[in-house]
Amino acid sequence: MNVLAICAHPDDAEICCGGTLAKFARRGDQVAIAVVTNGEVGSPTLPTGEIARIRQAEAQAAADIIGAELIWMGFRDEFLFDTEQTRLAFIDAMRRVRADLVLTHWPGDLYNPDHTITGQIANDVAIMTTVPNIKTAHSPSARIPIVYFFESMAGLGFLPEEYVDITETFQVKRSMLEKHESQVGDWLKDQYGSNALDMIDVISRFRGIQCGVRYAEGFIRAKAYPRNITGSLLP
């Protein structure tokens, strides 16, 4: 199966669904991580160009841990809008990897507008990936990908409908997030006084308690005609 995580910022995939991505990769699925914005505002001290380069390198290092393809989309951090250009870029990312399954932000995640818009666009354009008259660099997909929304930041307002047991891949999730040194050790503490490594431990443990395992990640499937399914595509 071809799995694509479309995330607003570098480190979002690791925080929100890193254990699940590692589990997909471990069983032999093809995994790609599309980072929509370049993370250029994510430093209290470094200029935009420099921190964007650092964050791309960190995202690549994290993706390399599970052998995932990194797709760097390069939109401006904090200024993501639903435009024709943005929609075409999302469609092309899905076509590029021939995505069977897309993991993305829950549109109800009000932590950041980039999160909200990323999840909304990803879900909106999934049905467009098979349409021949919508032209992008890659040819139309053979099937419409199934979309799953992953955990909101800090789990606020998010009630999972499906869970993935990530007990065996939780340390991989941590290792991936640790590659984002500029965020874990600097930006998030400076701006919010928080530690992302502590947060993923608490949230993953809490979701695990909910479904009877040590660590878990929660998801909600986008249920829409004509791309609804029986069962689950999660590992």
TrEMBL record:
Superkingdom field: Bacteria
Pfam families: PIG-L
SUPFAM superfamilies: LmbE-like
GO MF annotation, one: hydrolase activity, acting on carbon-nitrogen (but not peptide) bonds, in linear amides
Protein name: PIG-L family deacetylase
Species name: Paenibacillus ginsengarvi
